[in-house]
Amino acid sequence: MNTSLATGPLPFARDFALQLLEDMLRIRRMEEKCAELYGAQKIRGFLHLYIGEEAVAVGSLHALRPVDNIVATYREHGHALVRGLSMQSIMAEMYGKREGSSRGRGGSMHLFDARTRFFGGNAIVAGGLPIAVGLALAARMRGEASVTACYFGEGAIAEGAFHESMNLAALWRLPVLFCCENNLYAMGTALSRSESQTDLCAKAASYKVRTESVDGQDVAAVYETTCRAEQYVREGNGPCFIEYRTYRYRAHSMFDPDLYRDKREIEQWKQRGPLHGFTARLKQLEMLSEEEFLALDAKVGAEVERAVAFAEAGDWEPIEDLALDLCAREANK
Amino acid sequence: MNTSLATGPLPFARDFALQLLEDMLRIRRMEEKCAELYGAQKIRGFLHLYIGEEAVAVGSLHALRPVDNIVATYREHGHALVRGLSMQSIMAEMYGKREGSSRGRGGSMHLFDARTRFFGGNAIVAGGLPIAVGLALAARMRGEASVTACYFGEGAIAEGAFHESMNLAALWRLPVLFCCENNLYAMGTALSRSESQTDLCAKAASYKVRTESVDGQDVAAVYETTCRAEQYVREGNGPCFIEYRTYRYRAHSMFDPDLYRDKREIEQWKQRGPLHGFTARLKQLEMLSEEEFLALDAKVGAEVERAVAFAEAGDWEPIEDLALDLCAREANK
Amino acid sequence: MKMSYREALREALREAMSADSRVFLMGEDVGRYGGSYAVSKGLLDEFGPDRIRDTPLSELGFVGAGIGAALGGMRPIVEVMTVNFSLLALDQIVNTAALYRHMSAGQFSVPVVIRMASGAGRQIAAQHSHSFENWYASIPGLTVLAPATVDDARGMLGLALADPDPVLIFEHAQLYNLEEELSADKVSEIRSARVRRAGSTVSLITYGGSLPKTMAAAEMLAEEGIDAEVIDLRVLRPLDEATILASVRKCRRAVVIDECWRSGSLAGEIMARIAEQAFYDLDAPLARVCSEEVPMPYARHLEEAALPQPAKIVAAAKAMLGK
Amino acid sequence: MKMSYREALREALREAMSADSRVFLMGEDVGRYGGSYAVSKGLLDEFGPDRIRDTPLSELGFVGAGIGAALGGMRPIVEVMTVNFSLLALDQIVNTAALYRHMSAGQFSVPVVIRMASGAGRQIAAQHSHSFENWYASIPGLTVLAPATVDDARGMLGLALADPDPVLIFEHAQLYNLEEELSADKVSEIRSARVRRAGSTVSLITYGGSLPKTMAAAEMLAEEGIDAEVIDLRVLRPLDEATILASVRKCRRAVVIDECWRSGSLAGEIMARIAEQAFYDLDAPLARVCSEEVPMPYARHLEEAALPQPAKIVAAAKAMLGK
Ligand SMILES: Cc1ncc(C[n+]2csc(CCOP(=O)(O)OP(=O)(O)O)c2C)c(N)n1
Ligand SMILES: Cc1ncc(C[n+]2csc(CCOP(=O)(O)OP(=O)(O)O)c2C)c(N)n1
Ligand SMILES: [Mg+2]
Ligand SMILES: [Mg+2]
User: Fold this and answer.
1) Boundaries of CATH 3.40.50.920 in chain C?
2) Cα within 13 Å of Cα(A188), Cβ side
3) Distance (Å, whole) CA C270 – CA C258
């Protein structure tokens, strides 16, 4: 692990930098609130927080276009938010309210949004990869210049679905961006105890897929790397695999006592926090003052409060509508 | 494809060489008879012939020991025979007679033999690989110095089961010999249309598994390579992957019109027939005369005739015994 | 016009591909090989390798890719060589295809058609002879079809493609060589069961590969003066309860026939529905003829003994009538 | 001694591992993490990483490896985190574990035990709330257990390990925190159903996670003067028909309760068996209370509405009695 923080000039303008910072902050503050609401039993079921990994979703999704498809996992609040779901619809979904993005059917793990081509939230590890291959195949057959970005954890690499999907995408040269969020653990299982080859790019390269590996705590590097990969893929050269080296600061889910990681390891990674690091860099570059930061944080805080109020005020889906949207046709029993 | 035949001195004695030749001949003559019996409707269902690939089973299985475990595919008549199932029990099984190795329940694709640790015959492509991993795990936990050899076609490599099994075996350093019979086609699908990376050893190496690739038409080379790999595995160094480069001379199964291969390609490979090549070499080395060859062939022919007579004379399993051996305990419904 | 079931399927594929450029076929050996049951033979030349797309041996991957392509605006027809191999892809069917519309509250839909050969009777033993349509028929969000006639083989595919949600089609391997006259009226819906033989004494309810056997049994019963009605379910999900119950109410006795193992068979589900809804209309206990509860053996006589046969259906019907 | 269902399972694991060095546990996060439902917590320290073996996320691979290890002379206990993920491993269970003995004519056997959490009720939505024990219970060659009490959680594992053939154990996720007095007599067999509450008016037949709900319903019925009998199936394959039929013959009415989707539910199979064998003993149509036929929703009120509940069981029983 590289322990130093990224420094020096940025490859993009201040406005964009502030937007990246704001999006990271939005995820962070939203999720801190979620954790609190989970304690208050407003949010139930599984809740997987993305705290510590924000730079990955923010940097990579900002490299993509509205026409692109996004396929995510159960740890997808951040991706949904950055992609353009309103914080209100996300929060209402976690409350299980009908104003939620899936009318309360999905909860934390199953956020969807057709408008922004956000194909969900998938709670089956590696389950999204074949879907992404198919979305990319459809795009190619329809002559669309879109890229399909598929997020998954490093734990998913052991699944057969990873293997079959990589091969199909490479064999057919499909425009898939395989976005591997390597946070070193799959629940309590460290990468070295799940893969004989821990160099994930070496694994991906065995499918003749182009690979990139980047510091996932550095939002600027994430953005740049993803732009490069996205361009390669969009130009029809076939898929690309990106390893984002990152870390989750919280437990796997709210049920996890988190006893399998060394506290020092967690502390070390926290030194390299994506928010902290980027804020410091912006300050060093004199793009951000402490005052401006506090104003931004207050703005984000207000958005969170509005989202909570919205969710609180929401309605429950009537029980009669349990089977609504099961099928387009008449009830299917 | 290397079009020349292997020549020159052999790394083993004449007796052993003749045994290899005889085993190849036994497979060849048995299967030629099977094809005939299929035409006569004595054998039914699926029948996958190994003709052209004999050197692989013969050379590799002779490198293994009685304590070792063998896991094979639906194209396993040759492996079963070389491993020590009697030709009679194989033939009776294909007839569906109770004297067959599985009392007629399995047929061509499901030969089993506990005595020789022949764990079958598996008609699910790549289905045997996880089983082999488990057998090797058991051997390791029980402190046995056995190797588990698992045969599969190159088509199986696209399956998730291949990926998961390679990783498990490598991660746990298990004594598995992954024996890939690369005959270039999976039914009608050429390797280049099923794998983005057609260098199979490169794929296997991505699991940090040791690899070997050998001319599967040269029984001596197959034997030597397998001995080397088998020793490495037996010594506790973890699994090894061997690619046997071979070719099937017949169609995939008796239902296959075989329209997807170039006739010239087939002819070229026939020039390098494993029997033909090895016989020529033995003659060149003056280890075998034409007379001796004919005598051997006659001996094998007689064995085939005996096997057919045995199968013909066999009984049908009584219908009352349909559920026999379903469970060790009482009928399970 | 006389046509085989196989040809009818091929014609249906050809028609669908010609009519809509979003339709394509993908699966193992559907192209160069011509399909393991030769259904797609010749289509590669006609439509090219993009639309008659051979896949590697990756059932989970390519079924999932079919689902993804449907989400992405195409109308894929995914051929899984046989139902046996579909187990490898089951997660994608259950956890993705069947759920997407409901879980996304109607934002997304998966208009995929998945075809597979199923059933036993060809001496290809335990790993290649399964009938799992009962499992698939238990999954909300799917429509499950079982064409048992050349007409249905010809007509169901287009209707399935028109459905905005996932449809599974089970083609019993023993039917591919079936030859029948193609009727003039096109099959126009995939919602209802059909009375294939009207009768009044006992209702024989079946589908797919068991239909010919059941029709044969009805003939045998007729020779003994027993007037059986034969219902072909056609659609295994959603079940057409109205047709089933009407037949049972008329005949007051029912035998359900399918090739699943008895425990957990679709036949059992049909019986449960009858026991719930037509109990007072019954004059005798319900009965079923299914496969014996063993892995399917290779030897012909054992396989025949393990499968439903006309004689067993006749015996069950007669026992019910006290004959 | 009072004990939780979770502790009972852990004790059973500990006892089995101590008694037989061939026994080991493998699965995702069974070791360092302590098991996703904390069943194996502490066992890694006690038995070491070889025998409490964490696996990568490779359900097909490690379930197959468990089967192979059983063939190779070990007595593996494979934990599949939840039944939902078992779909990825289903091919190995169906096409290998269940077939080996029969297909090899008794030469090989697969003494593996596969445990998995199942069921809904924790608001973890459609991909994590399935009940597929009905599918598994339809496969010849398997024994399928559903411990619903602390005694059974404590006692079934050892008996399952003693079986030379594959045994599946379904642990309903809602039961892990159940606390009960452990009885003095050890559970001694895994072949029969149990009468958990004797009664005479209506037979309520259930298993696993639905047992507590059914017991609650029986109490509610008792308050209304209706004397329900509750049968806990315990063993889902092979079904203990004798106990089921005896209860139905006594009560002459039956409601079957399980958490499967109604179509194709195990409840349906039980009803079919009753309709086949105890038709003349029935005074009313059979009924069942199952899950609604939708993917399980996240929101609590919707999930509750989708699942069997005591009130629904009471209503079904009363309707049957014309009350
Ligand atoms: C097929 C499957 N197996 C197991 C699980 C249970 N599970 C949920 S998340 C998880 C860990 C995944 O780790 P990783 O892919 O690294 O993603 P991360 O949680 O670290 O973001 C596991 C084992 C699952 N959801 N799906
Ligand atoms: C999981 C699965 N999918 C598909 C099939 C159908 N099938 C049987 S053999 C075969 C080709 C396998 O090719 P390969 O692995 O190269 O072995 P070969 O037949 O060439 O020896 C296929 C597609 C199967 N048996 N199992
Ligand atoms: Mg991870
Ligand atoms: Mg091959």
Assistant:
1) 194-320
2) 22
3) 11
Distance CA D274, CA D249 (A): 10
Question: Between the CA atoms of A140, A141, A145 and A148, what dihedral angle is there, to the nearest 10 degrees?
Answer: -50
Q: Which amino acid is at A104?
A: G
Structural domain containing residue A59: 14-321
- Prediction ipTM score: 0.98
Which residue type does D196 have?
A: R
Which residues on A lie below 8 Å from B195 (Cβ)?
A: 167, 171
- Measured in Å, residue A182 CA sits from the centre of ligand 3 at 5
Best of A101, A322, A326, A333 to substitute, by most chain D Cβ atoms within 10 angstroms, is A322
- Residues of chain A with pLDDT > 90, as a percent, come to 95
Q: Measured between alpha carbons, how far is residue B107 from residues B127, D82, D105 in Å?
A: 18, 36, 12
Which tokens sit at A242? 């990106």
How far apart CA C187 and CA C234 sit, in angstroms, is 11
- Could you tell me if C272 and C248 are in contact, meaning their C-beta atoms sit under 8 angstroms apart? no
Nearest CA-CA partner of C60 in D85, D4, A147? D85
Give the active site residue among D7, D28, D128, D259.
D128
CATH number, domain of A227, equals 3.40.50.970
Q: How far is CA B106 from CA B86, B92, B310, C298, in A?
A: 16, 11, 18, 5
Nearest to D238 among B139, B160, B332 (CB): B332
D297 lies within 8 A of chain A by CB: yes
CA B248–ligand 4 middle distance (angstroms): 8
DSSP notation for D148-161: -SHHHHHHHHHHHH
Instruction: State the pLDDT at residue A333.
Output: 43
Q: What average pLDDT score do residues C123-144 get?
A: 97
CA distance A224 to chain C (A): 27
Catalytic residue (one of C7, C28, C79, C128): C128
Q: Is residue A231 part of a domain?
A: yes
- Cα angle at A262 between A256 and A263, to 5 degrees? 85
Bridge partners, C80 (sequence order): C116
Report the CATH architecture of D2-181.
3-Layer(aba) Sandwich (3.40)
Element (H, E) at C30: none
Note the CATH architecture for domain C194-320: 3-Layer(aba) Sandwich (3.40)
Is D246 in a helix, a strand, or coil? helix
In the residue annotation, D301 being an active-site residue is answered as: no
Q: Are D172 and D264 in contact (CB under 8 A)?
A: no
Q: Quick check: C96 and A106 CB within 8 A?
A: no
Structural domain tally of chain B? Answer: 1
- Which residues are CB-neighbours of B104 under 8 A, at least 6 positions away? B92, B93, B95, B96, B97, B98, B316, B317, C297, C298, C299, C302
**Does a structural domain hold residue A330?**
no
pLDDT of residue A5: 79
Between CA D201 and CA D226 the distance in angstroms is 7
How far is it, in rounded angstroms, from Cα A292 to Cα A313? 32
Tokens of B235: 């010594």
The answer to whether position B326 is within a domain reads no
Residue (of B130, B156, B132) closest to B74 by Cα position: B156
* Ligand 2 site, residue C57, Cβ cutoff 6 A: yes
Which pTM value belongs to this model?
0.98
> Which of A187, A200, A261 to mutate to test ligand 1, by most ligand atoms within 8 A of the CB atom?
A187
The per-residue pLDDT for range D172-211, each reduced to its tens digit, is 999 999 999 999 888 999 999 999 999 999 999 999 999 9
Residues near ligand 3 ion, CB 5 Å cutoff: A 153-155, 183, 186
Residues with CB under 6 A from ligand 1: A 75, 123-125, 152-156, 181, 183, 185-187, 252; D 28, 57, 59, 81, 85, 88
What is the token pair recorded at A98? 């009908």
Domain assignment of residue A101, yes or no: yes
